[in-house]
Amino acid sequence: MEASGGVVTPGTDVRQKEKEREEARAVERRGPGRRWIRPLLMWLAVVLICIFCLFPFYWLINVSLKTGSDLSQSDLLPPSPTLDNYDSIFKNGDFTSALRNSVVVTSITTILALIVGSFAAYALARLRFPRKFLLLAVILSISTFPPIAIAAPIFKLWTEIGFYDTYIGLILPYLTFALPLAIYILTSFFKEIPKELEEAALVDGATYFQAFRKVILPLAAPGLVTAGLLTAFFVWNEFLLAQTLTSSPKAFTVPVSVANFTGSQKFEIPLGTISAASVVITIPLVLAVIIFQKRIVAGLTAGAVKG
Amino acid sequence: MEAATARLGRGRRRKREKSYGSEERRLATLLLSPAMVVIALVAAYPIGYAVWLSLTEYSLREPGKWRFAGFDNYSEAFGSTEFWGAVKNTFLFTGLSVSLELVIGLGMALAMHAAFKGRGLLRTVVLVPWAVLTVVSAITWRTLFEPNLGLAPTVLEKIGIGENVVWLGQEGYAMAVMVLADVWKTAPFMALLLLAGLQVIPDDVYDAAKVDGATTWQRFRRITIPLLMPAILVALIFRTLDALRIFDLPFVLTGGTNGTSTLSLIAQQELTTNNLIGYGSALSVLTFVIVMGVSFIYIRTVGGNIKSLAEDT
C-alpha cells in the first residue's frame, strides 16, 4: 500500500481492512481445509467450457483425417491418419473455385460496406438533421429481415436482368444485410471520438471531407477493423441467399459448395472429404478470432450494453 | 459606420448560421444516400415485390402462365399441413434452443467473470464455435451423430438415452440434434453478451451486500439478475430473431425431413426446388410477418440505445 505512492484515501483503507477481516471470517467458518474448493470449482468450469467449445471442432478435424473403413468407426483418434481427403478437395475444381468466389465476394462486400457505411455513420454521428431516430430505426430493422423474404423477388429479378449466378448478384444483397450492422458499429465508434478534434481541423480551414479523412478515419481505425471483420464473417457464412441465387461453380460460395458436396461415388455421402473441406473453410475464421478477439468482442457487444 | 459594420456583421452571421445548417443537411443527405439507395433497392423494394408476387400464381416451369390469384396462395398455406408443421417446428426449435442458450450462456458468463486468470484465453476459446460457419456446425454435428462413425450415439446409449436410435432419422431425435448444434454454436455468443453486462455491474454493490450479510444465492438473485436484465433481454431478442429464421441447420442435417422443416426452409424449397414463385413468396411473406412482429418488440426494447446514438452531441 505504501508503494502505491501514499495517496491512500482513508475510505479505501477502511474498506480494504474490512474486506480482509470478512474474508478471514469466511475462511474460519469454512475451515482451513475448504479453501481450495472455490478455485477448484472455477478451474473445473473453465475446463468444461473449453471441452464444450473445442471438442466438436476437434471431432471434425478427426473425421477429416479418416478414410475408408475408419469412417465407420467412432475412434477419438484416427487409426491411420491421412491427408488424402485434403488432397482430394484441392484437386476438386468446384471446391477451389468456390474458395476463390468466396474470397472475391467477401472482400468486395466488406470494402463496399466500410466505405458506404462510414459515410452514413459519419452523418449519423456528427451532422444535425431531422428525423435521425427514424432513419436509424429503419436501417436497424433491415438487419432483422429474414433473408428468405427477399429471396423470391431477387431470384426473379436477377434471372430477368442477368444477375442470377454472378458475383454482383450476391454482393448487392450481402451489402444490404451487412450495412445496418456496419453503420451501427461505426456510428457508435465515431461518437466516441472527441468532437473538438474535428472542430479544430474545421477552424484551421479543413473541409468536412478533409476532417473526416484526416481526423476521424485514423482514430476510428479500430471501429473499421471491427465492422470489417463482422461483415466478412457474415458474408463468408451466408448460406440461404447463396444457395438460392447461384446454380453453378461459377458463383457457388464455400457454404454452398460444402453443403452440396457429392463424392466421386454417387449415392454415398463422402463425410471424410466434406469434413476436410469444412475444416479448410473454417480455419481462416478461427485464425481471425485468435488474432482479433478483442475487436470482435467489442463489435458483438456494442449493441448490448450501451445506453 | 459602426452601425453599418454591426449590421453587416449580424447579417453575415445570420447568413452563415443559415447556410451552415443547410450545408450540413446537404452533406448529410449526400453521405447517407448511397446506403439508403442500396437498402431501398435491395431490401424495401423486393419486400413490396414479394407481397405482389405472393398474390399471383406463377411458376418458373411454365413462364407463360401467370394469373392474379388474390389470397389463394395464403389460403393454400393455411390449409396445408406443411405450413403448420413448419410453424410448429420453427417455434419449438426457437423456444428450446434460446432457453437452453440462455441457461448455458449465463453459466459460462458467470464462470468467465469469476475466472481472473485466463479470461482473455477463455474469450478466444468461446469465440471458436461462433466463428465456425453454421453449415460447418451442421456437418460437425452430423458426423457426431452419424451411425457407426459418430461418437455421440455410443456415449448416450451408455447413459441410457436413445438405444437403437438413428438420431437424424427419427422425429424428435432429429430436432434434438438440431437444437444441440445451435446451442453449441450460439451459447458462447450469448455468454459474451452477458459477460459484457456483468462487467458493468460495480463491485461496490456486491461488497455492500456482503457486509449486510447476503448469501451468494441472494446476491445472485437480488443483484446480478436484476442488473443484468437489460443485457439478457437484448441477447434473448437477438437470438430469437436468428432462431426464427433458421435455414442452414435443417438444410444440411436432414433436408427438412423427420420433423425439422422450418419456415425459411419450406419457403426456399418451394421457390427453388418446385419453382413456385407465387406460393413460395406467400410463405416468405408469412415468415417475414412473424419475424417482424418479434423485431418490433426488439426495436421497442433497444429503442433507448438507438435514441442515444441519434442524439446530437
What keywords describe this structure?
heterodimer; A: 307 residues; mainly alpha; MetI-like fold; 2 domains; 74% helix; disordered N terminus; B: 313 residues; two-stranded antiparallel ribbon; 2 strands
The most extensive interface between chains reads: A-B, 104 and 111 residues
* CATH class label of the largest domain in chain B: Mainly Alpha
Strand order of the largest sheet of chain B: 1-2
SS-based structural class of chain A? Answer: mainly alpha
Residue share in β-strands of chain A: under 5%
Order of helices and strands of chain B: HEEHHHHHHHHHHH
**Overall shape of chain A:** flat
Q: SSE order of chain A, as H and E? A: HHHHHHHHHHHHH
Task: Look up the CATH topology of the largest domain in chain B.
Answer: MetI-like fold
> What is the count of DSSP helices of chain B, taking H or I runs of 4+ residues?
12
Main beta-sheet annotation of chain B: 2 strands, antiparallel
